[in-house]
Amino acid sequence: MSDASAQTPLDDLVGEWLTLPDLADALGTDVSRARGLVASRHVVGVKRGERTTFQVPAAFVVETDDGPAVLETLRGTLILLGDAGFSDPEALRWLFTADETLGRSPVEALRAGQRAQVRRLAQAMG
Questions:
Q1: Rounded distance, CA 55 to CA 22, Å?
Q2: CB count, 10 Å around CB of 83?
Q3: Are 60 and 20 in contact (CB under 8 A)?
Q4: What pTM, to 2 d.p., does this model score?
Q5: Which of 32, 51, 66, 97 sits a CA distance of 20 to 30 A from 5?
Q6: If pLDDT is split at 50, 70 and 90, which confidence band does 101 have?
Q7: CA 6-72-9 angle, 5° bins
Q8: Is the separation of the CB atoms in 102 and 118 below 8 Å?
Q9: Number of H helices and number of E strands within the chain?
């Protein structure tokens, strides 16, 4: 990660955020299921905003043939980053910072189906 990206505020990297009720609405489920997605590391987030509410990046929700869902390949990548010692804010910063090897940010690469390439990079971080 470049020094410049380490200085970029997380809000500027991520862009759009969802509160847990917003995540639940986006997925067509209830807030307890949205909390379960956080607990099971399918998504991560941070406390942010004026009222410091827990929020997750909107980019973690994708449209599938079965409707909106959490990005399927995200959990394995989050586990790899956690095993490498990344905190949730550090993992978010890594996921949303453009990478020269990928030609885009890791989260954009995951959304484009480049799971193997992103996981190789994540493993190299450890």
A1: 9
A2: 12
A3: no
A4: 0.91
A5: 51
A6: very high
A7: 15
A8: yes
A9: 8, 5
